[in-house]
């Protein structure tokens, strides 16, 4: 049986500006639909917080709004049930986080 999983390379996606992100309309529905993808996202955000304490490891976060992708590179400093908090002062809705990777 073949899964619907696809591996995406976001390295060429340009970093989004704060203006782009503040004008984005994020859905109230999760951009991920498989429980295992949601679990991996949570694990990677926890890892990003731990690595962020070193002040040397930036996290690359891909957000999805509709069919548009946004890219942020920052240090993740905290998390609550609805948002990830970044060192640059931004708060990112968890349901919009499509991918988390480390630089």
What is shown here, in short?
The protein has 2 helices and 6 strands.
Provide a descriptive summary of the structure in words.
Strand 3 and strand 4 form a beta hairpin. This protein has helices at 18-23, 35-52, and strands at 59-65, 68-74, 76-79, 83-86, 91-93, 97-102. A 3-stranded antiparallel β-sheet has the order 2-1-6, covered by helices on one side. Strands 3-4-5 form a 3-stranded antiparallel β-sheet. The protein has 2 helices and 6 strands, in the order ααββββββ. It is globular, with a radius of gyration of 13 Å. By secondary structure, the chain is of the alpha+beta class. Helices cover 23% and strands 30% of the residues. The relative contact order is 0.24. The chain starts with 17 loop residues before the first helix and ends with a strand.
Q: Give the mean pLDDT.
A: 88
Major sheet: order of its strands? 2-1-6
Task: Determine the fraction of residues in helical runs and give it as a percent range.
Answer: 10-25%
Shape: globular
N-to-C order of helices and strands: HHEEEEEE
Secondary-structure content class: alpha+beta
Query: CA-to-CA gap between the ends?
Result: 33 Å
**Beta strand count:** 6
- Low-confidence stretches at least 5 residues in length (pLDDT < 50)? none
Radius of gyration: 13 Å
Number of H- or I-type helical stretches = 2
Give the helices and strands, then pairings.
Blueprint: H1 18-23, H2 35-52, E1 59-65, E2 68-74, E3 76-79, E4 83-86, E5 91-93, E6 97-102
Antiparallel strand pairs: 1-2, 1-6, 3-4, 4-5
């Amino acid at each position: 049986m073949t899964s619907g999983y696809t591996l995406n390379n976001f390295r060429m996606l340009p970093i989004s500006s704060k203006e782009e992100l503040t004008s984005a309309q994020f859905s109230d529905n999760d951009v991920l639909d498989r429980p295992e993808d949601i679990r991996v996202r949570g694990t990677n955000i926890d890892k990003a917080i731990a690595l962020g304490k070193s002040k040397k490891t930036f996290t690359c976060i891909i957000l999805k709004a509709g069919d548009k992708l946004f890219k942020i590179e920052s240090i993740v400093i905290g998390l609550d049930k609805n948002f990830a908090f970044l060192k640059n002062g931004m708060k990112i809705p968890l349901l919009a986080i499509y991918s988390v990777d480390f630089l």
